[in-house]
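Reviewers asked in the last cycle whether our approach scales beyond single polypeptides. To address this, we selected a multi-component target totalling 622 residues and predicted its structure end to end. The input consisted of the following lines:
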Amino acid sequence: MRKLEFLLALALAGAMIAAAIAAPWLRFVLTIALAKGIAVMGILLLLRAGQVSFGHALYIAFGAYTVAFLAPRLNDAVLLLVVAAGGAALLGLVIGLFVTRYRQIFFGMLNLAMCMVFYSLLEKLYHITKGSDGIRVEIMPVAGQALDRIAYEWTIFGIALALAFALGALLRLYLVSPMGEALKGIKTRETRLEFMGVPARGVLLAAYVVSAGVGGIGGALIAMTSRHVTPLLSYWTASGELVFIAILGGAGGVLGPFLGAAAYELIRVYAAASFADAWQMILGTALLLVILFAPGGLWGMAARAIGGRSR
Amino acid sequence: MAEWFQDNGLLLGLALLDGLSSAGLIFLVAVGLNLVFGVLRIINVAHGSLYAIGAYTAASIGLFLSTRGLPQWAALPVLLLSAALVGAVLGPLIERFILRRIYAGEEVVQLLVTFALFMILEDVQKLLWGVQPIHHDAALKLLGTIDVPFGSDFIPFTNYQLFVLPGFAIVTLIGLAWFLRRTLTGRVIVAVTTDREAATAMGIDAAKVFLLTFTFGAMLAALGGALSSPTAALVPGIGAQTIVLSFAVVATAGLGQIEGAALTSLMMGLGRSIAVYFEPELEVVVPYIIMVLVLLVRPQGLFGVIETRRV
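The resulting structure, written as structure tokens, was:
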């Protein structure tokens, strides 16, 4: 199964590259999908512990605005990615220290609250953030190389793909490590975990910091691709979208977030192009159908089709 | 201090009156959400859409009837009837055909089903009513204004906002408390809230209670929307704004707490309107600050009951 998953990931990457070559506008859509997939891996980690964050758009927006703010001073995509990841992880640590004291609905709602506070700060502090107009992000050098627009877009796409692979492999390791196994313990019965001497809050906090860090990376990639950041990145519906992608793709495996994100972005683009006023309705209906008739998500369907278990 | 009051006293008075009327609206919506969560254990994201649809339906029925020579006094009953209509139609539809299928599912799946519903209803609303603001304030005009004595001055304020909105909230609070504690149906609902299994074992038809509660909650959301419609122009997005605020109220009050929801709505309504007049940047943030502060001190919410830890 492990080998199969790797092959499937390779096939998916190949399909993405082929699609990006065939249609340049798909390159944009797929880079965004990869960025969101990376962020959704964090959601997946928390879902293992049975906790739903309805506020992880906060870390995406934080990563994106980090890029927008620092680009004039720290003009390099690689450096900015590192700073965005580190900054988001640090913010995740501070907020995590507070929110990991809570579970279930309180955990979800406190995350939502943080995300909405960030949203209103971005919107209202006009003299710093330019409010709902947002900030433009210029094309920046990557690892010291100045690039023209086409080369830049291909490079960001490549970086997103490489990061998706690297982080996906790390997430796999994390999930089978004792830390990952303990997350499942939080879901089934936290008290028992504590009886065994495992600090449940610490386990959840570590996962939370990781999820914030990958959120920051996803946000930085989104800012570099769309080259425009607005407070809407942090609105609560954007957080819902991340959980949506996680469930659409299937929470069973590392490939799920990327399958989900690619499907989500493609449906969204096509639906918005053909039915401008009804794209949300189409996405919502797709989600309902998946939940009601394919509870394992896209990854679950794929795994069943090739005859393995969805893990 | 005395000098500050001299300068800002009237503004503060206006803020208090505004806060009172918006607290009434917040309560109507939040208490419905809270009731539904208490019984079904589902946080209904689509509750905000029911609010928006209630508002739009009331406004368009009002507009339609006013062109047909409806007597002035009927403006208020029209609001109530539209709310009842929306709740009675959409409530059973949603509960029967969608929610019923996922009661056994995971929490995240339940949350997402209502999120999908929210997305669908949001577009239904745009398709039916368009994106142009709709305004119909017959009920507001009908009742006229009053000069509220404040110190040595008077503050002009509409009777509708001063009496009708808080009035409905108070009637709902008292009526609901009486219904849940003194009538058989109410006690059955409380029994299911407290212990679904035991209640079912005693012969209570849980499915019926779910349907009843959800329809009632939907009516309350639609009532909040209908009552709000004369006070502001209706635009897309009001549902999304309302639901996040109600989330904050429910989490702060403690789950399943009616009096708690009333007190929290009052705190948040007043806090928000004071912010509007004195620190407008903070308006959206205030409810979340209140929520975070309350949960820091009381992790189970203001009136929440600590659940026993299971081993």
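Chain A touches chain B through 48 residues (CB under 8 Å). We regard this as preliminary and will revisit it once experimental data from Aim 1 are available.
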